[in-house]
Structures are given as C-alpha cells and as structure tokens.
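Below is how a single chain appears once it has passed through the pipeline. First comes the sequence as given, then the structure the pipeline wrote out for it. We keep one example in the README because the format questions we get most often are answered faster by looking than by reading.
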Amino acid sequence: MPVQYAPTAPSDEISMWPAELQSASLPPVCVKTGRPAWRYYTLRFVASPSGASTVFGFMAGPYLTPGAVRARLPFARRPLTVLAGLSLGRVVTSVIGVACIMVAIYVPGAPRTPLLVIGVFSAAIATWIYVAYFLQAQFGEVHHTPDGQNWVRLRRVHPNFVAAIDAWRQVREAALRDPAAYSVDLRWHWNGMQWVSTMPGATTSP
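Resulting structure:
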C-alpha cells in the first residue's frame, strides 16, 4: 500500500503528519534557516483559531488547547537560542510576578507597594515575552482530514527544510521496499559495496 502524505504546498510551506513531526529520523536541517541543525526542539501546534477560540487559544496556549499536535523539529543554534530564551524568560517573569503579588497580599508586614509594583511589572514583561514566543513558535496549523486524522501545515519554513523532507520521504518509501539496505535512522544506505549517506551533500560511509 503506498504511503499517503498531506497536501502539497508552496516552497516555504509543507504539510506533515503528526507521526512525521515526531519521528526520530527527521532530517537535521533547520526549519527556519535551512542550515544544519544544532538540536531538536519540541513545539505544539493548534488549529487555526477563529472567533472566541482565538482568545482561549492565545491565553491558554498550545499546551492547554485541545487537539494540539506535538512536533519535534530541528533548529540551528540561533533560532533555538531565541526560542529557549523566550520560553525561560516567560516562566521566570511569571513566577516572580505571582510571587511578589502573593507576598504583598498575604504576608503581614511585607513592603506592599514595592512588591505590587514589581509584581505587576513582571507580569507585564511575562505577557510581552509570551506574545513574542507565540509569534516565533506558532508557524504551524493543525487541520483535519474528512475521516478525522490530524495533519499540520507548516508555514514560513526554509525551502531547504522542505527539500530535505521531500528527500527524506523518498528514502522512507525506499526503506519500506528494502529495509535491510537502510540504517535505522534512514541516514545511511547500503549500495551493495559500502554505506553511503542519504543526506544531501554527504557521501562518506560511517
């Protein structure tokens, strides 16, 4: 039975199944820069919000929105540092803001005014950081097939990533026909004489 893929898209967009987005053999090509990936980073994508769900999706976030799809994507050092920094920053400022406000309200003798100022200021910074993180991280939308299966449309991704995914899918199909000729991570192929890389531009054996 042939492998079925989600609908095609322009060169800076690609449609993928959740199983593909969570695959350990996803090509190490940065989804944003098209350069070799430094590490993989997990994001969660939700359906394109509309109406009242826009407010809920924005405030609750992908981690609380029903139907979110988990994606383990490759990133180069710089975009990954930005995402990780924003993620850490929103947690730290949120904790500081809540802690200061709680202490100001419930601890007798605490310097209430300075704590409330710091708490409100930290909460405002946390909100700004969350907006920045949301804009950076939410470049995918969850859609559904007529029979209820989820698929994700990634937008504003690098053409090199799209090309790598297309090549990776071809390798996966070939591995289904001849699994003994491919490594478990699909990055190496036995051509009858030696192992050769399936990654673009690499030909040396492991």
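The radius of gyration is 22 Å.

See the next section for the split statistics.
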